[in-house]
């Protein structure tokens, strides 16, 4: 199966991608992991990305596309993959289509995780992290620590990341709506999109996604 996972910030894409990739025994390919791997390995594409990032600029599409194509050609992706964060715009989606056609491959499904904007803001703006970098995450509404502002595990101070403020979250959502959301209509025109509610428990959302993937697989067998 070759799958694209789409959804706004706070929809739980990373969590769902990890579960789905494990269930399907295919690699989870995320843009963040691509950047980190190429930069740490010192690849030519990684060096280019690092230069742009160090200068405070967005990494150009052609660099991101190059990284994604290299990763999709690795042996562990020969039986399929799950893309998370790529493509992020129409240009990248068209480049992905061209790449797949060139290798006589195609996408099987595009899963669109849907969550109300106010829920996204509440999820992200309420998030609190441990300053000791213990990896423990709390929430101001539904996952409170025993002692306000203190990590249950290590006693570290809890804080809100600057990127998690409501103002910043709404700006990120505006970018998503203008740049990434259009790819949903692009893929819907190809009959690939299933929209899934991202509300509920992680397991509930995963089950919805797996049912959509199974339906997509059955449709591919019949066509």
UniProtKB/TrEMBL annotation:
Assigned EC number: 2.7.4.3
A GO cellular component entry from the record: cytoplasm
Reactions listed under catalytic activity: AMP + ATP = 2 ADP
Keyword Transmembrane helix attached: no
Region spans: NMP: 30-59
Taxonomic superkingdom: Bacteria
Record: residues binding AMP: 31, 36, 57-59, 85-88, 92, 161, 172
GO molecular function: AMP kinase activity; ATP binding
Coiled-coil segments on the chain, per record: none
One BP annotation, GO: AMP salvage
Entry keyword set: ATP-binding, Cytoplasm, Kinase, Nucleotide biosynthesis, Nucleotide-binding, Transferase
Subunit structure: Monomer.
Written domain comment of the UniProt record: Consists of three domains, a large central CORE domain and two small peripheral domains, NMPbind and LID, which undergo movements during catalysis. The LID domain closes over the site of phosphoryl transfer upon ATP binding. Assembling and dissambling the active center during each catalytic cycle provides an effective means to prevent ATP hydrolysis.
UniProt-recorded name of the protein: Adenylate kinase
Organism for this UniProt entry: Streptomyces oceani
Gene it is expressed from: adk
């Amino acid at each position: 199966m070759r799958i694209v996972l789409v959804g706004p910030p706070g929809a739980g894409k990373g969590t769902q991608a990890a579960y789905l990739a494990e269930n399907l025994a295919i690699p989870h390919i995320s843009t963040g992991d691509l950047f980190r791997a190429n930069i740490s390995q010192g690849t030519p594409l990684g060096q280019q990305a690092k230069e742009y990032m160090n200068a405070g600029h967005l990494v150009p599409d052609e660099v991101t596309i190059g990284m994604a194509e290299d990763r999709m050609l690795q042996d562990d992706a020969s039986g399929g993959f799950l893309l998370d964060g790529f493509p992020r715009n129409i240009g990248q989606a068209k480049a992905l289509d061209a790449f797949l056609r060139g290798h006589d491959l195609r996408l099987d499904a595009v899963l669109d995780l849907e969550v109300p904007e106010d829920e996204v803001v509440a999820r992200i703006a309420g998030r609190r992290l441990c300053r000791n970098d213990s990896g423990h995450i709390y929430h101001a509404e539904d996952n409170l620590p025993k002692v306000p502002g203190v990590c249950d595990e290590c006693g570290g101070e809890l804080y809100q990341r600057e990127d998690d403020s409501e103002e910043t979250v709404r700006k990120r959502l505006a970018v998503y709506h203008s740049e990434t959301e259009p790819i949903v209509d692009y893929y819907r025109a190809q009959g690939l999109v299933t929209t899934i509610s991202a509300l509920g428990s992680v397991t509930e959302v995963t089950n919805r996604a797996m049912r959509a993937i199974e339906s997509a697989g059955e449709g591919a067998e019949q066509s």
